[in-house]
């Protein structure tokens, strides 16, 4: 029986499971974001793009690439959460107190960089599957699911192509993990220190909204370039060339799709941490307080 002198910590895989749950809810927003970012010129806004997708391919088209999105969460998010939370709990347990914010930032950056690299193949297939419906029928890749996409890319384009954009994905992973995990921890610590809220769902919600906003601001420029690189057919020679070509469209091109990115990333962050905290509360490892 749980007592007051007891707390629970997350198991290493809880972050991946929570992220999968959040991805199932926010996938349509992620798909619309990819469509907006891969426009060469700003022709449509979020609502117009959503209507176009539904009219062209039906309501279920909003869930194109869901298997790849879940595969990405089970690689990228599970890796970064496992590294961040495992190391944080061990170090904080030794120090008998929360880590300083700069250590949370460094740990988040490292975990996110590793997760971004591990998740690059699934991320690339995710972008391709979401963007497939925009292509003419003869150019569509028509992956049946994420594993089919990974296999076909490996067979037809080689291992190197699977990690196309890995440096960008890893850099973005570092930034978004700092924005999400490090900022969430710090925001939660500050919220609880006020004494107005206990460690409940309202505190988790408020902290995760702050974290989602920070993550969107930090990672949006890299997210735009990552999407362009992964969806390219060889028109970019590298990251710098992609940045230069994007810059020709104006400085705001780096924030193309910012509103849908925020509308997608903030709810995704909120749902991830709400699910994670509930998993921790009911299924976490019991530790002495």
List strands and helices in order, with pairings.
Blueprint: E1 6-9, H1 14-37, H2 46-57, H3 66-95, H4 101-118, H5 120-131, H6 146-157, H7 159-162, H8 166-193, H9 201-230, H10 239-247, H11 258-283, E2 285-288
Antiparallel strand pairs: 1-2
Helix pairs in contact: 1-2, 1-3, 1-11, 3-4, 3-5, 4-8, 5-6, 8-9, 9-11
What does this structure look like?
- It is a single chain.
- The chain has 289 residues and is mainly alpha-helical.
- It has one domain (6-283): Alpha/alpha barrel (Mitochondrial carrier fold), CATH 1.50.40.10.
- Helices cover 71% and strands 3% of the residues.
- The chain is built from eleven helices and two strands, in the order E-H-H-H-H-H-H-H-H-H-H-H-E.
- It has a two-stranded antiparallel sheet.
- Helix 1 (14-37) packs across helix 2 (46-57) and helix 4 (101-118) runs antiparallel to helix 8 (166-193).
- It starts with 5 loop residues before the first strand and ends with a strand.
């Amino acid at each position: 029986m749980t007592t007051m002198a007891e707390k629970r910590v997350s198991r290493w895989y809880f972050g991946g499971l929570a992220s999968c749950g959040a991805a199932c809810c926010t996938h349509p927003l992620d798909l619309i974001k990819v469509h907006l970012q891969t426009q060469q010129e700003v022709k449509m806004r979020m609502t117009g793009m959503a209507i176009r997708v539904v009219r062209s391919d039906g309501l279920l088209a909003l869930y194109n690439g869901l298997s790849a999105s879940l595969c990405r969460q089970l690689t990228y998010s599970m890796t970064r959460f496992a590294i961040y939370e495992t190391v944080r709990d061990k170090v904080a347990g030794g120090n008998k107190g929360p880590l300083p914010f700069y250590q949370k930032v460094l740990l988040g950056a490292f975990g996110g960089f590793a997760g971004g690299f591990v998740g690059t193949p699934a991320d690339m297939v995710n972008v391709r599957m979401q963007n497939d419906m925009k292509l003419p029928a003869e150019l569509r890749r028509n992956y049946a699911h994420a594993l089919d996409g990974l296999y076909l890319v490996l067979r037809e384009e080689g291992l190197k192509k699977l990690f196309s954009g890995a440096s960008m994905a890893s850099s973005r992973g570092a930034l978004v993990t700092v924005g999400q995990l490090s900022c969430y921890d710090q925001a939660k610590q500050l919220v609880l220190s006020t004494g107005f809220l206990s460690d409940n769902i309202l505190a988790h919600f408020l902290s995760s909204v702050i974290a989602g906003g920070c993550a969107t601001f930090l990672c949006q420029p890299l997210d735009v370039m990552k999407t362009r690189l992964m969806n390219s057919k060889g028109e970019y020679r590298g990251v710098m060339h992609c940045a230069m070509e994007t810059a020709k469209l104006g400085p705001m091109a780096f924030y193309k799709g910012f509103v849908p990115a925020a509308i997608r990333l903030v709810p995704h962050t909120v749902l991830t941490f709400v699910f994670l905290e509930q998993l921790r509360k009911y299924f976490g490892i019991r530790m002495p307080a």
